[in-house]
Design brief:
Elements (H helix, E strand, L loop, with lengths): L3 H4 L11 H9 L2 H10 L4 E2 H7 L5 H13 L3 E8 L2 E7 L1 H4 L2 H12 L37
Antiparallel strand pairs: 1-3, 2-3
Amino acid sequence: MANVSETTAPIPPDAPRSPLEAALERVGDRWSLLLVDALLAGGRRFGELREELPGLAPNILTERLRRLEREGIVIATPYSTRPPRMEYSLTGDGRDLASALRLLADWGSRRNELGEPLRHDPVPHAPRGALVLPDVRLSGQRRGVG
């Protein structure tokens, strides 16, 4: 098995990026996407985000919030000055990610824990070879996005 560093050529810094590459650079990690999902219901404080995302270390949460704020996806609004405390919410640009998260959640709901596609029954009355698009919903409609 080849080492990844042996098979992956470095990308020149001046190489044109695709729109997908640009998007992934902004929010392309697990915790960033889960934070955006957590904030879709409205503003949250640091402690609330820690409770909603168990397993996310406080230092990583801080770093991801700062990164998302720099990217214009999250806005931090002070609610206390001594000590300084913030409430985090999505900007319009951050809320625009909801449709992409719906698609990703739908795709994920059709996979088992091993990443294998789940068996689906054929769509009734669909002609053979017809493209049938799924009804896309964000899993856990609990957040009222839809």
